[in-house]
Every structure is written in C-alpha cells, then in structure tokens.
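dumping the sequnces here before i forget
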Amino acid sequence: MRMLPTGEYIPGHSFLHRLDARVKLPCFFILMAAVIGAASLWGYVLVVAVIAVLILLSGLPLPAAVASVRRIYGFLLVIFLMNALFFGGEDVLASWGIVQLSRGGMEQGFRVVGNVVLILVLGNLLTMTTLPTQVTAALASLIKPLKFIGVPTEEVAMILSIAIQFIPTLMEETELIKMAQIARGARFESRKLPERAASFIPLVVPVFISAFRRAEELALAMEARGYRNAQNRTRRKKEPLALRDYGALTVCTLICLVQFLLRRC
Amino acid sequence: MTKMSAVQRAVFTAVCIGLCVVLPMAFHAIPNAGVIFSPMHIPVLLCGLICGWPFGLLCGLAGPLLSSLITGMPPMAYLPSMLIELATYGLVSGLMINLVNTKKLYADLYISLVVALLAGRIVAGIAKALIFAAGKYTLAAWVTSYFITLWPGLVIQLILIPTLVVALMKARLIPERYPVQG
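..and the predicted 3d for all of it:
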C-alpha cells in the first residue's frame, strides 16, 4: 500500500473539519499542554481517550491519523533507548560500564516517546482537517496584535504556512539523499568523530541545494501568478466564530485543567 | 540573478524553517549527531546570511518553536533558551553580513558567522544566568556547555555554512555577493 502522506489535508465534513482554524490552533496548544502535563497513568489515560475521541470526530481512518508515527518509529526507538540506557537512577536492572538500564530510565523513555507520539497525532489531526490556507489565515488572525509593534503579521503567517507545507517534502527528500549517500559509502554510523563529521557534509549540502531549488521554483510560480506582498491581500468575507467553536475551546480548557488537577492528586 | 525579491526571501526563509524541523529529525537517527552537530543552527545562520536580519530573526524564533511543536525536539523545557540563542544567531548573522564589506566573500562570511556564533552563545548564557537558571549558572558551565561539548558542531558550522553559501551561489539560487564585472 502507498505510504500515506504525513499531515496532508484530507477533505471531509466531520466536526473537526468544520471547526474554525482560529479555534483549532489554540485548542491544539491547550491539548499539547495537557499531554506535556501528564504525570501519572490516569493523566495519560485521559489524553489518550481525548485523542481517540478526536480521531473519531475527525472521521479520518486510523492509519492516516498515525501515519507520521509509523514513519519515525526508528527515531522513537532511539529516544527510548537513550533514555532507558543513560537516564541513570537508583533502580538499576542491568549495567555495562557507563551504560545502565534502569526502571526510572525506562519510565522516562516511555514518557518521552509517549509525549512525542501523542503530540504528533494531535498535529496530524490539526493539519489533516485544516486547509493550509485556513491555518495561514488563523495564524495571521492570532498574531494580529503584533501588528501594533510593527510586525508584518500577514507575511509571517504566509512564511509559516509555506514552512509547514514544505516539511513532508523535505523529509522525504532528506531520507532519499541519506539513502543515496549510504549507497555511495557514507559512514553515518562510524564511531570515529572525524569520520562521522565528514559524512555530515555530503548529506547536508545536497539537502540544502535541493530545498532551495524547490523554494526558487515556488517563488517564481508565486511571482508569475502576481503574488507581490502578503499585506496587500484582501479577504472576501470574515466568518464569525460559531457556537461549536466556543464549545470546543471550553472543553479543551477543561481537559487541560483536569490534567493539572490530576498532577496535584 | 542580481537581487532577491521579497517573495524569494520569504520562501527561502520558509524552507529554512522547514529544515529546522527536518534536519534534527534526520540527524537524531545518527548516534549523538543531534547533540554534537547542532543541525538546527545551520538553517538559521544561513537564513540570516542569505535573506537578512528580519528573516533570520523569524527563522531563529519559528524554527525551534515549530520543531518543538511537531517533533518534541527541543523539549519545551529547553525551548526558551534555545529560542533566544537561535534568534540571536539569525539576527546577528543578518546584521553582520550587511555591515561587513571586505570585498572578499569568505572574509565577510567568516566575520559574520563568528560574531553571530559568539553573540548567540553570550546572549543565551546571559539569559540562562539571569532568567532560566538564575543563581545556579556559572561561567564554567557556560564554557563547558557552549564551547567544549559542542566544539564539533562549531567546527562543522564554520566549514559548512560558507560552503553552502558558495554552493547556492554557484547553483545560481542566490545572487553573487561580488559579481565578476564584464
């Protein structure tokens, strides 16, 4: 089966699709705080349950919602092992020189990996149910107060939106170049620092050249279509927030509060 | 290419912010590469040098923030000090490349880069000493964390960033700083 593109918008009419992006973004940050604030088993049960409900409300297939997690399982394994083997602590299960496998390290590893996975799924739900143009408009709306201190907020929102859209493409390209350099004999896993450092250059230079080439093409395409300045853009209509938007914001805030109450218990 | 347009600067900045997310993910799969080589610093410094200080500053702020939101790296606990450090890199590298004009490309790049790297480390150290670890942060801890532990990253940045700027100029993706007349 073709790998699902990470975080790409999937059209739909679900509750999450209909939620205003100006509310979805703050909700994302509030729920992220709830994930980071989880300190006990019940705390994690709460955030996992909330994310499960959100997946149901998004109407997205489960494989799509967790696609980004499947793509970086190797990285998650490395994070877990680094925490499990180097965290230290008193409850040591096994030890090999400076490397110590401890219960505390394993718990810390599970916690870090769990947080990354949950935040990735939340981020996926956000980007898969929100058009990039809506994210840009929402960002522009949320950072609007910065206009008073002279920040070109429309332009900043446009840059952030392009950056978010570039990430999956850049990831695929980096992986391809890495594989190509390994096939050519690059030794990323070498134990010698100079060798490892030398292997770094043939990877980074092509990644940057290819990324800037794509950026150049996009800039040319934007200019050819008459794009000049984000501040000159106009909008046809301004939608007011609906009742469901206020409801969603209230529920997310309550979830975050419950999480922090659970921390104190 | 004679001069970059505002749209080009904006899109190049967007790509640099994207690379702030992607490069650490790619290098964390290589043992200790993330810590040793500080891959997020490279796009920020490059953005400042190529697009100027406002874009460098934006890249320094948005890059780590976006990376932290999407990948959890850097962890939220380290994010504020990293934001200050990287924002200073982007800001100072952009300011310096506008100020320095020795008529020699490598000299301009190295002067700007070294000043930016020092300024970022000094500002981050001051922020840690005064705000994030007030009273607990020592000069020895600053030297150890920013110069001794991260020296491979420092060397890599000093080799790689001028190389990247020249490679991008040769690929005609950015304008020549000192174009050959005639």
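The radius of gyration of chain A is 22 Å.
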